[in-house]
Amino acid sequence: MNLYKRLVLFFIFLFITRTLVGDFNIFKQRKIVIGEFQNRGDPDYDYISESLGTRLYTYVILIPFITVDDEERAFLENLSKTDEFKSAFIEAGDVIGYRLTPDIEQRPFTGIGLPFSERSWPMYIYGSYKVLTEDDTRVSLYVYNSMTGRLIADYKTQTTLYSLLNEPHTYFIPFFKHFLKYTIYTATIETEPEDSLIFIDERLVGIGSAQNILIPRGQHRLTIKNDGFRDYTDFINVTGDDFYIKVELKETEDPRILLVLTDPSEADVYLNEAFLGKTPLEISLAEGYQTLTFVKEGHDRLVINTNNLSPDEKTLNLKLSTPKLTQDQYLQAETHLKRAKILSYTGIGMLGVSILLGREKTLYDQNEDLGANRYEDLHLKTNIFTYLTVASSIITGGIFAFSFLEMIRYFIRYGETPGATTDQKPPAGYQEPPVGYQEPLVGYPGTSNIELLKAEVRF
């Protein structure tokens, strides 16, 4: 990347860092004004002023927070009771914290004309330098707190002209350790390739290398990104000065081409929720956890984790199964089966009754022929048993018919396709749980190349 592009991206980065904070709230943020470095010596060295101001800014933007002392808290508490700032205090949750996020601004300012009357009551950081000889250069750094109305840091050191221009950490780091009210250390992070973006706790701190940056004591999340390489993320534990780490990113492999065939064909194919087409289909798979989802009406949806596939596999043959019963359908089918059994047993019982009635009718027919003196009485009983036998036979036939019908419904229910009229596509955000699942149905979104902002940040 040429120098012009790097400068343009650098100014874009500065603009983003200034505008990301949004509306200023004095109870959540601490306004910091970065002023100028005033040359108090030979005018031939005026050119150094702007460079020192820019380098001071690059250090300040990496400060994670500003602590609030008791005097400042008392000032903010009184401010919260005024009508002008009452709504801002409510927006901040009716709380004044012990740490405020820096809201940084850079403008021409040399400390002349203090105190100021800005309603954000900034903390002004500015400095001066004087080149006596190349081996004797004096540097002064000041911090004026407009909340308390006094100078809270007055740091002076002696250095060389070379260090003034090329080794700003030799005087900036001792100044910030003197100024900040919490333990802070230095860290150097280098990367390969050299144009990788370096993030600490999701804040951009450098490109390629971050030399002697200020970082609070403790554990921090380090992330390195570069297009065409795998993202690197790890936790670092900073317990002292001169922490050093070098990270070499691994290139992402070329995507593999996989031919997908299904039986039956014409199944919808989704890769991490994105519709790719219908089978048979050739798909491109990048590295990382990904899920392939196959959907066809009348068949079970199939989800496959690509990490379970063999690296040498070029063709994927899948057979989509027919749906199994849902719980409701299973209960309905079993209900039909129970009814069929009950009706069958009832029908068998009624069949026995019909046989007994038929037997009694036959006996009365025989007695009717033999006992002529009781003809009328026997004839009446014969007719009654005849009607009962016919009725019992009809009822028995009906019961068996209903039993047969319930059996048919039972088999039909097991042959139904659940959800044939419903939307078979995976819902937005569909993802099977990755832990504790026994089938290969899990997945996370795969790694894809991203467009990254690359700003020139020098320390």
In short:
The protein is an alpha+beta fold. The protein is built from eight helices and 20 strands.
Please trace the helix and strand order, writing H or E for each element: HEHEHHEEEEHHEEEEEEEEEEEEEEHH
Query: How many helices does DSSP assign?
Result: 8
Span between termini: 19 Å
Q: How many beta-strand segments?
A: 20
- Helix and strand content put the structural class at alpha+beta
CATH architecture assignment name of the largest domain: 3-Layer(aba) Sandwich
Q: What percentage of the residues does DSSP assign to strands (E)?
A: 25-35%
Number of domains: 3
The Cα radius of gyration reads 43 Å
- Main sheet characteristics: 6 strands, mixed
Spans of at least 5 consecutive residues whose pLDDT stays below 50 are 17-21, 416-459
Strand order of the largest sheet: 2-3-1-4-5-6
The shape is elongated
Give the CATH topology of the largest domain: Rossmann fold
CATH class identity of the largest domain: Alpha Beta
Any descriptors?
six-stranded mixed beta sheet, disordered C terminus, alpha+beta, Immunoglobulin-like
